[in-house]
């Protein structure tokens, strides 16, 4: 099996994970958990989002969280933004990296925004300009590039058209986000190989939800064709508001544990991540979707049998 020697993981639990939780965590608690995420060794962290507080109440204090964290050398702290107003909030609180998102489902986009996905991306041009003027790095995400509840399998031409729209407005860091949990490994391998070959100027992130238990296999399939940047969420926190029964992102500790066992470096300490997940489990008062949290590490078993 062809695997990369190392991968880069972005911890998204405090954003993608937490935004679907009913329990609103106090700012102090979020800051402390994020410091724990930094201490565990994640090189990239999605801290929160600058959505309207009414739409996503859990993220209302993202500005404050950024201010309290300040700059952390060697760690990229990013936030999800919906539009130009998000850039202004990023400027005001010292956030240096933002991410936009568009749905690859044409029907979803037309129904919600009355625009095609490409028109949505064209509309991001003002965000790119404002970000560049203010020294803020900007990236883009495509949700449901593998499949959506509206259309089923997403046509590759649709994904290409959105990637081209992103490149045209000056965004070349692109995340393929399987928020609906419909991707399967052979499709992931094919799409990842295709986009890398067709758009060598772009850099890629993969974001898999474990809704149907396929996220880990999808990560391995992406790794096999040379992808090296993945989002994950400690404790497997999360869901998706418009996909009933959606599970969270693949759990960080499960990904790190697999990488450790396969000899793929992550730079993240799985034991520290497991401690964060236990803490989150206590704070939210419900079980989390993480195999390693339940069963412990494989290496913990060795010598335990006599
Ligand atoms: Zn997600």
What is the H/E order? EHHEHEHEHHHEEEHEHEHEHHHH
Largest sheet: 8 strands, parallel, barrel
Parts with pLDDT < 50 across at least 5 consecutive residues: none
Termini separation comes to 34 Å
Small molecules (ligands, ions, cofactors) in the structure: zinc ion
Rg on CA atoms, Å: 18 Å
Spatial strand arrangement across the major sheet:
1-2-3-4-5-8-9-10
The helix/strand class is: alpha/beta
Provide the descriptors you would attach to this structure in a database record.
306 residues, alpha/beta, 8-stranded parallel barrel, 14 helices, globular
List the helices and strands and how they pair.
Blueprint: E1 8-11, H1 13-17, H2 27-40, E2 44-49, H3 62-69, E3 76-80, H4 84-93, E4 97-103, H5 106-113, H6 117-122, H7 125-133, E5 137-143, E6 147-148, E7 152-153, H8 156-169, E8 173-178, H9 185-198, E9 203-208, H10 215-224, E10 229-232, H11 252-262, H12 270-284, H13 291-295, H14 298-301
Parallel strand pairs: 1-2, 1-10, 2-3, 3-4, 4-5, 5-8, 8-9, 9-10
Antiparallel strand pairs: 6-7
Helix pairs in contact: 2-3, 2-12, 3-4, 4-7, 9-10, 11-12
